[in-house]
Design goal:
Shape: globular
Catalytic activity: S-ubiquitinyl-[E2 ubiquitin-conjugating enzyme]-L-cysteine + [acceptor protein]-L-lysine = [E2 ubiquitin-conjugating enzyme]-L-cysteine + N(6)-ubiquitinyl-[acceptor protein]-L-lysine
Order of helices and strands: HHEHHEEHEHHEEHEEEEH
Organism: Stercorarius parasiticus (Parasitic jaeger)
Pfam family, one: zf-RING-like
Radius of gyration: 20 Å
CATH class of the largest domain: Mainly Alpha
Strand content: 15-25%
CATH architecture of the largest domain: Orthogonal Bundle
Strand order of the largest sheet: 1-3-2
CATH superfamily of the largest domain: Winged helix-like DNA-binding domain superfamily/Winged helix DNA-binding domain
Distance between the termini: 46 Å
GO biological process, one term: double-strand break repair via homologous recombination
EC number: 2.3.2.27
Length: about 240
Amino acid sequence: NIAMAAQMTDAHRRFLQVLMSHGIMEGSEARKLHRRCCEIHKVYYAHDKLDDFISTINSHLQPLFMQIRKGMSEDDGRAHYALVNLAETEVTKMASDYTENELELFRKAMDLIISSENGFASSTDILNLADHLKTKKMKKKEAEQVLKVFVEDRWLSERNGEYTLHTRCIIEMEQYILSNYQDVARKCNICHSLAIQSQVCESCGIGMHLPCVRKYFRTQTEPRCPQCNDFWSCDIP
């Protein structure tokens, strides 16, 4: 049974199909799906072997330049799994779904979010850019609708009129963002993945995700930077 599980089975195929239809899936949902797929197709199931199960799928996806990647929600630190197209590492992977001026608005929103201090951009600031698109100007009402679609398609997240990058977007575009925003994009000092919403050390400039900050300082009586050991001046979430 265990030997069989290393090969691509119908359980693996079903898991991949469901994940493809969702685009992204929270860790607990992925674990439930793993179990259900194994039970339906009578394949060996081990509750702690989801990542092995996924790496079997990934070995078969490799020739297709696709991969299931694990990432973290910047809001709550929960694991997520997303299917990523490795052949297209830029915003061009969105090109089939959106018009040129919609893509330009997305890029401009991304610029604002990544260069901001807290990883958020206000709807007002983003909508003000709609008048200055090079491809084709967009009316504010139209731009509002486009932002709504970006949220529905899980490229952006919105909270009280403030926008940030959705977990799906961060997982899919991590390499693109790190190479195209080298001056401002940073990796979390704790988990070493891209950090958009983060706290930054005032002394040495390293950044940490809010869930990583919370976890790291949980056991410390006095919060000190893991890099330079200076006092951590930000409020611990």
